[in-house]
Amino acid sequence: MSLEAARARLAADPGSHSARYDLAAALLAAGEPQAGGQMLDEARLIHAIAVMRAVGAEPQRVRDDPDYAVKIAGQLYAQKYVATASVAYGMAIARDHVSQQGLLSFGLSLLHQGRAEEAIRIFAAIAEMYPGAGVAQFQLYPHFMVENGIERHAAAARRWAAMYAGPRGEETLANDPSPDRILRIGYVGPSFGKSQARQFMAPLLDHHDRGRFELFVYPNQDEPAVWAAAVTVRSLKGLNDEQACAVIRADRIDVLIDIWGHTAGNRLTTFARRAAPVQATWLNYQQTTGMTAMDYHLCADSVTSPGMASQFTETVVHVGATSAPFRTDIRSRSPAPMLAAGTCTFGAFINPAKLSDETVAGWSRILNAAPAGRLLLKYGYFEDPVLRAVTAARFAGHGVDAARITFEGHSTGAEYEAAFARVDLALDPSPCPGGTTSVEALSRGVPVLTLRGADYYARVGVQVVEGAGMSDLVAESWDDYVEKAVALAADGAALDALRDRCLTGLDAAPYSDEAGVTRALESVYRDLFARWCARQEKPGAALAG
Asked: Do you find a cis peptide bond into 335, omega within 30 degrees of 0?
């Protein structure tokens, strides 16, 4: 819709949120991002009020009664209506209803819509009002999704560490500095058997060489031992950092691995107390912790990028073609849907937080160059009609008709599996790529197109795609990305052939070699511990990492 037509439509129906979405898209298309953003905010507000009314809330009371507004916002958030919830939270805050939990939920509701810059500002304000390591950490993760995010995250992580995880003085550890003995390896995270970490941790723990390593896991909750071989499980639930550190030291852990980084449920401040001679961060959080007590960051070779080491307080250690094993028992293969439909369906089963402006712009270029193509966006937060409308307007700002985008919410079982059969080509976002979702797509025979971004975090998806032997689906620039997608969108036979390559490539991928990846990590652990042992041989060397 032209700018003139959109303005005329709003003038004719000034109370319409739909007309405002059209005008927002027209302004964005006309190169007026500030005016377009303001109109998008108006549309979101009016639409959210309509949704509140539709679900049985009282909009006037939401405006006037902050306690009621917070209650409604919480209910909406629980139903995954994150955009609508953010409006209710905003009304409560405007009425001076301020609480730590309410503000955190407000910030998260913004982040899950893709409004990362706003979320960062909210989380920074909360950290000022409620000082504490856990609260302050919330402002770190959103940096993954913003411009210059790597540099900004590195600075923010260092500030966090200086305030909450700085040096605690030299700690003397009594570990035997013999590099060839049986080593005790500990893993720390919120959960190992109940979360997404299980798909990575189960193959590792099952394949560790018990003749050379003793294994310990330290979940931050109660959970049973569910591994194929002996693993000592010690819950850190309810323990403060000093107590948790004492538990780990009592087990005489030689190499202690954080698997969670600055995400909810971590125990990073325990690492600040030097619980083991060698401490490293790995797996879930592909960024620096900012801590001087964290000795190493373990990552795949494929994420190497210029200036990478300078962004870490840790020493960066590349562990091979892949950073971790991944286990999926599902292998399915449906025909490329384009063969029957005649048109290509692109898909992304990702958190809307990852729908950066550059991703929306890039995917819009694809849809504009492949005018018969469609896009399927699937995630629980797309249950929210406001988020769907805002997202459609963002694409419309690049000339993409909203009718070409299908939104779906959360599903499980057969319904979830069937969704993959409707996708010809999965699109990886940037600068915050997928991970688990990309492997899941490959295991269902759906090829994944990813971008080798400018920095190490933006290259996380490369190890998944390249590892499956599909380097031809790794783009070197957005121009290359668009060209590859458009070419495939015109060739149903090529898309169908890729589905066979997905399964054979996944089976041969380094991350599917559970024993091989485990041996590689064990070798790294040995080397890192040997470095520590060598330092102990120097006269006057302290027994700290």
From this structure: no
Contact 315, 295 (CB under 8 A): yes
Q: How far is CA 93 from CA 68, 76, 88, 90, in A?
A: 12, 16, 9, 5
User: pLDDT, tens digit, for every residue of 495-516?
Assistant: 999 999 999 999 999 999 999 9
Asked if residue 457 lies in contact with residue 287, where contact means CB atoms within 8 angstroms, the answer is yes
> Given this model, what pLDDT does residue 224 score?
78
- pTM for the model stands at 0.94
SS3 readout for 450-471:
EECCCCCHHHHHHHHHHHCCCH
- Residue 210's pLDDT band, with cuts at 50, 70 and 90, is very high
How far apart, in Å, do the first and last CA atoms of the chain sit? Answer: 62
Topology of domain 338-511, CATH: Rossmann fold (3.40.50)
Topology at the third CATH level for domain 3-164: 1.25.40
Sign of CA dihedral 335, 339, 340, 346: positive
Evaluate whether 241 touches 273 at the Cβ level (below 8 Å). Answer: yes
In a 3-state reduction of DSSP, which class is residue 477? coil
Fold of 183-325+516-536: Rossmann fold (3.40.50)
Q: Which run of H or of E encompasses 281?
A: strand 278-281
pLDDT number for residue 520: 97
Retrieve residue 295's tokens. 């000795």
How many angstroms separate the CA atoms of 111 and 49, rounded? 20
* Alpha carbon distance 462, 439 (integer Å): 11
pLDDT digits (tens, 9 = 90+) for 85-105: 999 999 999 999 989 999 999
- DSSP string for residues in 170-217: ---------TTSPEEEEEEES-SSSSTTHHHHHHHHHHS-TTTEEEEE
**AA identity, residue 419:** A
Domain with CATH 3.40.50.11380 in the chain: 183-325+516-536
> Rounded to whole angstroms, how far apart are CA atoms 131 and 18?
41
pLDDT tier, 170 (very low <50, low <70, confident <90, very high otherwise): low
CA geometry: angle at 148 spanning 258 and 190, to 5°?
20
Strand 425-427 and strand 405-408: the pairing is unpaired
Q: Which of 351, 159, 386 is nearest to 262 (CA)?
A: 159
Question: Does residue 41 surpass a pLDDT of 70?
Answer: yes
The pairing of strands 374-378 and 232-233 is unpaired
CA atoms within 13 A on the CB side of 504: 7
Spatial separation of the C-alpha atoms in residues 69 and 90, rounded to whole Å: 9
Averaged pLDDT for residues 401-415? 96
